[in-house]
Design goal:
Blueprint (H helix, E strand, L loop, with lengths): L1 H23 L3 H8 L5 H6 L2 E5 L6 H8 L6 H11 L13 E5 L8
Antiparallel strand pairs: 1-2
Protein name: LysM domain-containing protein
């Protein structure tokens, strides 16, 4: 009987942790770091970007992959997106709204 209770408790804990992980997002540390980024006019102008309207199902990563052949790290993408769109949450893009998405070009020397 104790084994049965133990396995039920393990199943409940597994379900609860899965639920909380899915609700908090897959990159909570990056989202926390995004809030501390300071935006200045020179940084915004230095990042090449393209304004795109978000469609249903689009994410920051999916749009960035469409725009760029060479993808930077996710941390760099989040930082650049936050600099270009200081009031936007990259984890919750609004459908129909325009955002500036950073463009990345491969260096000639690589």
């Amino acid at each position: 009987m104790r084994k049965k209770h133990f396995f039920i408790a393990i199943a409940i804990v597994a379900c609860w942790t899965t639920y909380s992980d899915l609700n908090s997002g897959s990159l909570p540390a990056s989202a926390t770091n995004q809030a501390s980024i300071q935006v200045t006019g020179t940084e915004h102008a230095a990042i090449p970007h393209k304004r795109i309207k978000v469609n249903p199902g689009d994410t920051l990563l999916s749009i960035s992959e469409r725009l760029n052949k060479d993808e930077p790290s996710i941390e760099q993408l989040l930082k650049d997106f936050a600099l270009l769109n200081p009031s936007a949450d990259p984890n919750h893009l609004e459908i129909g709204k325009d955002y500036a998405f950073p463009l990345y070009y491969k260096s000639e020397g690589k």
